[in-house]
Amino acid sequence: MNLTKQEREHKEFLKLQKEYNELLRKKWSIEPIKLDKPIHHGFIRFLRIRPEYYNHVDYETIKKAFDLIGVRSVYSKTSDFRYIDKRKKKVLGEKHAHFSYFVDPRFKYYMVESKRAIDIARVTECKNYIKRIDVPFKCNCNFFNGNRKDFLPHYEFSKPWVVEEKTDKHWLTHYTPIDSDIETRMAEINSIMNRKHGWAKICGRYKDDYHLQIFTLKEKVHGYLHGWPKPRIDDLYEW
């Protein structure tokens, strides 16, 4: 197969990407080692159910709804949790723990039917403590600058007064050893890909995409072409 210079370059990028992913899997597979004594390292803020609701008749349902939605904890090296713009040397606000959101399982087009049925059952069980939201999801925390949006139909916790924010010390109980060979090779690959715009060209976001004919290139190099599956019209309007 006769490949042009651009096609050979793209094939080399794909080879480096595969090697990088394999190294990343090896890095993540390293088992953490437990410390003999926990080390105090900063502070953490999180949300928890208020103690006065522990004896509530619906405590188990509240706990299930709380676990279903999920909580985003925040970490800080100091106890004031200030969010500072280092470039402008200005305090932008304070970090706060906040609720996450749970995407409506009926709109998760690519999940297994058995998993979808389980998620719908969980939502039905917690319907008194979660509410359906159709407006864009937007975090009001200053730490995220209020720029995060999600237009998928999702659920939120409907009774925020049931929970409280708590600040506690953050303790390190385990540490993950670093493999110098893996880290060195990953840094080398990342340097090559950044210098030659390899990541952008593989993702199809480079400025010369139309000249490179990126999709034809993938089909010629790999022998096949992957595309995003489109949901059927009846799936979109089924609910």
Description:
A hairpin with a 4-residue loop joins strand 4 (82-85) and strand 5 (90-94). By secondary structure, the protein is α+β, with helices and mostly antiparallel strands. The protein has helices at residues 5-28, 59-69, 113-125, 180-195, 198-203, 209-212, 214-222, 233-236; strands spanning 33-49, 71-72, 74-76, 82-85, 90-94, 98-99, 102-103, 130-133, 137-138, 149-150, 154-157, 163-175. The longest helix is centred in the first third of the chain and has 24 residues, at 5-28. Helix 1 runs antiparallel to helix 4. The protein has two domains: 5-30 and 177-236, no CATH class; 41-173, no CATH class.
Topology at a glance:
Layout: H1 5-28, E1 33-49, H2 59-69, E2 71-72, E3 74-76, E4 82-85, E5 90-94, E6 98-99, E7 102-103, H3 113-125, E8 130-133, E9 137-138, E10 149-150, E11 154-157, E12 163-175, H4 180-195, H5 198-203, H6 209-212, H7 214-222, H8 233-236
Antiparallel strand pairs: 1-3, 1-12, 2-6, 4-5, 7-11, 8-11, 9-10
- DSSP summary, beta strand count: 12
Based on Cα principal axes, name the global outline.
Answer: extended
Please give the domain count. Answer: 2
Strand order of the largest sheet: 3-1-12
Helix content: 25-40%
Calculate the terminal CA-CA distance, rounded to whole Å.
49 Å
The helix tally amounts to 8
Q: Outline the low-pLDDT stretches.
A: 142-146, 208-216, 218-239
Beta-strand share of residues: 25-35%
Structural class: alpha+beta
Instruction: Provide the residue-averaged pLDDT.
Output: 77
Biggest sheet, in brief?
3 strands, antiparallel
- Work out the radius of gyration: 24 Å
What is the ordering of alpha helices and beta strands?
HEHEEEEEEHEEEEEHHHHH
